[in-house]
């Protein structure tokens, strides 16, 4: 397995206790992983893809390598080169994998985004990233919203779709078919930016999280020791490619440890379809947010004989779901924890018992401490912030290299010489971490991270809204749901009809995963001396 060429792992009874990396200064996933596997075992499976229309593609590493070279030529011939930023909104289309490798190959920076965003969302990302191109799905409203964003903001951005001809877009698939499958290596450094994800903030707009070319290597631990991916296996992570979870479970670590990736291209989640895919293709390891497992348990779990490992992350997992899944499948659910800014920080790892409700033990990648507000380590069982110490004074592998255009915020999360996650937890005598919530107001709903400020910015534009605040409330299926609390302007009566009008107004302007599910009115908000709304008091009123 190729990962052994770039690291040395130390195990005790199958448990990872240490990992040492040794990679060249020019490490590049396209050349040093994909191309090498393609040269040595050209027919080895890389991607197994299917969709709801019963279409199927099984691509080898040779296929991915050759396709990515053709894709690279399209980009280069159109002026996209090293350091340029390219937005990619390709849902779960199989073209995503070759495009990700192609962008890496030429040293361009990929910015994956979800297809569910509005034109305003796309405009913000295009402008903030100063993107030179966008490559999007032809399905749904994605292309329409992307084109609207470019036109309304008068941006100079090259636009492509795949497979279909759409006005205002070039057809990337047509252009790549006639390109050469030969390309000399383009020099990049391991410390160059490779990937940017936009993640929600507690206030204002999303932040651009920058990862360099060493990021894929850090996911060896994610794939091998937490997700249970294995050489010649088939790993299936339920995630759309616009989210960081796709990098965790759909490409980098899996290919490094020799596992093929299962991709199911669907619109509407159907637990029965997932089980059919798992059984039809012989999926060996599976990862999904707790929301998916809740649906599976609720709808009834069929036998999945090929499945040998199951993992979950992203939100609270009800102990009942853990137990019922184990009863039906014989498999324990291995919870894990990390952020868009990191790789796996902690997990119920291979070689250790999976503890129901715990995030697991810290990854050997990091020195994790639970600290108080003064940076002092707290005792066992005490609540504190999850923090990560630097490694020999340097940023550990897998932790992001910066926030796009916001050096001050980056310095803030590294204050005191440690990385502050903003998440609270306790650690027990056995070294297991127990999640206790965010220190900020991020809402985690159905596996998505939602910044309340993004919704409040839309709410306040409704003529009936004088003030507003958004919080997360418990939801049986999503984990949390978005609730809006509105102080109406004089002259507006807080009626059920007005509440529906405001919800419909906002939801028509928000990506679906951000939709307001509940709305209530108030005559005024509890505030600090400086006038800031106290969300803690709002949550107390909800008995949260």
Overall structural class, as computed from helix and strand content, comes to alpha/beta
Q: DSSP helix count?
A: 16
Under the CATH scheme, which class of the largest domain?
Alpha Beta
What percent of residues are in strands? 25-35%
What would the principal axes of the Cα set say about the shape? globular
Overall mean pLDDT: 93
Supply the number of structural domains: 2
Strand order of the largest sheet: 4-3-13-12-14-15-16-17-18
- For the terminal residues, how far apart are their CA atoms? 47 Å
Can you tell me the CATH superfamily of the largest domain? ANL, N-terminal domain
Major β-sheet profile: 9 strands, mixed
Number of strands: 28
Q: From the alpha-carbon coordinates, what is the Rg to the nearest angstrom?
A: 23 Å
Low-confidence stretches: none
The helicity comes to 25-40%
CATH topology of the largest domain: Rossmann fold
Which CATH architecture of the largest domain is right? 3-Layer(aba) Sandwich
């Amino acid at each position: 397995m190729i990962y052994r060429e770039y690291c040395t792992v130390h195990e005790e009874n199958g448990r990872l206790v240490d990992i040492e990396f040794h990679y060249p200064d020019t490490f590049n996933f396209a050349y040093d992983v994909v191309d090498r596997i393609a040269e040595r075992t050209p027919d080895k499976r890389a991607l197994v893809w299917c969709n709801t229309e019963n279409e199927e593609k099984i691509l080898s590493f040779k296929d991915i390598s050759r396709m990515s070279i053709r894709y690279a030529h399209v980009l280069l011939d159109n002026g996209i080169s090293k350091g340029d930023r390219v937005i990619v909104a390709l849902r779960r289309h199989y073209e995503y994998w070759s495009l990700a490798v192609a962008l890496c190959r030429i040293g361009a920076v990929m910015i994956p985004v979800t297809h569910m965003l509005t034109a305003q969302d796309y405009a913000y990302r295009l402008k903030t990233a100063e993107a030179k191109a966008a490559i999007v799905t032809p399905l749904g409203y994605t292309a329409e919203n992307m084109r609207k964003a470019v036109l309304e903001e008068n941006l100079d951005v090259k636009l492509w779709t795949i497979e279909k001809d759409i006005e205002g877009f070039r057809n990337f698939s047509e252009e790549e078919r006639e390109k050469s499958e030969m390309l000399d290596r383009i020099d990049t450094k391991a410390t160059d930016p490779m990937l940017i994800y936009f993640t929600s903030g507690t206030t204002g707009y999303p932040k651009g999280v920058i990862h360099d070319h060493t990021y894929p290597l850090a996911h060896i631990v994610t794939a091998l020791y937490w997700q249970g991916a294995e050489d010649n296996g088939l790993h299936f992570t339920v995630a759309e490619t616009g989210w960081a979870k796709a990098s965790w479970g759909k490409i980098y670590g899996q290919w490094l440890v020799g596992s093929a990736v299962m991709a199911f291209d669907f619109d509407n989640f159907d637990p029965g379809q997932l089980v059919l895919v798992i059984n039809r293709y012989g999926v060996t390891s599976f990862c999904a947010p707790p929301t998916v497992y809740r649906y599976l348990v609720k709808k009834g779990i069929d036998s999945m004989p090929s499945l040998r490992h199951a993992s979950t992350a992203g939100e609270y997992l009800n102990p009942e779901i853990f137990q019922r899944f184990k009863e039906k499948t014989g498999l324990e659910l291995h919870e894990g924890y990390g952020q868009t800014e990191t790789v796996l920080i902690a997990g119920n790892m291979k070689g250790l018992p999976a503890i129901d409700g715990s995030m697991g033990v810290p990854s050997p990648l990091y020195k994790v401490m639970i600290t108080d507000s003064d940076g002092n380590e707290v005792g066992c069982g005490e609540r504190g912030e999850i923090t990560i110490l630097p490694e020999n004074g340097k940023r550990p592998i897998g932790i992001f290299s910066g926030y796009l255009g916001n050096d001050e915020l980056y310095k803030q999360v590294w204050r005191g010489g440690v990385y502050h996650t903003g998440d609270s937890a306790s650690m027990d005598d056995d070294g297991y971490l127990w999640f206790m919530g965010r220190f900020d107001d991020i809402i985690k709903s159905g596996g998505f991270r939602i910044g309340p400020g993004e919704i409040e910015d839309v709410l306040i534009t409704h003529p009936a809204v004088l003030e507003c605040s958004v919080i997360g409330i418990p939801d049986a299926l999503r984990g949390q749901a978005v609730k809006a609390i509105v102080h109406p302007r004089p002259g507006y009566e807080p009626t059920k009809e007005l509440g529906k009008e405001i919800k419909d107004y906002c939801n028509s302007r928000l990506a679906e995963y951000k939709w307001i599910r509940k709305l209530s009115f108030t005559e005024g908000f509890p505030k600090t001396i400086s006038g800031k709304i106290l969300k803690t008091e709002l949550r107390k009123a909800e008995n949260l």
